[in-house]
Structure formats: C-alpha cells, structure tokens
Amino acid sequence: MGTSAIVMMVIAMVTVWGGLIASLLHLRKHPDEEAAE
C-alpha cells in the first residue's frame, strides 16, 4: 500500500468513526421521544 492510500484510508476511517461517535453523543443528549413508547 502506498503512502497516499494509507492517508486516504485514515481520513475515511476518521470520517466514518467520527460521524458514528458524533451521532451517538447527539442521541444521548437528545433521545428520540417516539422510540421510548
């Protein structure tokens, strides 16, 4: 794997995992009211 491929892989992983963590934190602070029923 070349250096550019590794850099792009790291950027993609940070984007995916960062978005997942951000969405989990947002749901923890603002739970979905309809799902509780």
UniProtKB/TrEMBL annotation:
Q: Name one Pfam family in it.
A: MaAIMP_sms
User: Sorted alphabetically, which InterPro entries does this protein's record hold?
Assistant: MaAIMP_sms (IPR031596)
For this UniProt record, the keywords arranged alphabetically read as follows: Membrane, Transmembrane, Transmembrane helix
What are the transmembrane regions?
6-27
Spell out the protein name for this chain. Methionine/alanine importer small subunit
